[in-house]
Amino acid sequence: MGGSGEKATKNGGGAKAGGVRLTARDQRILRFVVSHGRVTVHHVGRFAFGTGGGEEGFDPASESAVYRRLRKLKRLGLIRHERILWNQPGVFRATEAGARMSGTGLPPAGIDLADLEHDTRVVTLSLSILGSSLYGARWITEREIRHAVLGRTRSTETGLMRAGKGWGRIPDGVLLGLGGERVA
Fold first, then answer.
1. pLDDT at res. 1
2. What CATH number has the domain spanning 10-132?
């Protein structure tokens, strides 16, 4: 699967899954999938193989090349692919093992049919924004925000929300600019 700009991580290798060493690109894809929860092949292609999403230096690739990379992660038990809606692209999401290996601290996402279209459109929007913004901007996903906010307000014993810790509306994402500015 070489030849499309992939490089091993520092010191000759990255994390291992099922005895196979993941490339730096595989690790970025896994973090991307876990951070967003549910993504399509087009999202992964744009993020890790083309323009947009801050992944500079990687060559554009065909959809079949993106699918090959995703099949590798699926064979290793790190992601799953599900066709949810008829005549719509399937979605990729992390398994428990994939979520752990991503290092994000986020659990794998579930499937909520009521929010699926909205959530995949937010991923598309985030890639469009990052593709048109200055190098270095970062998108913080709603899942990351919820994890950071709710993780501090849950009881360590029960996992339930502590009393009096309402946070109101959490945005779909936040764009963190080069100067530290935040746009929700």
1. 36
2. 1.10.10.10
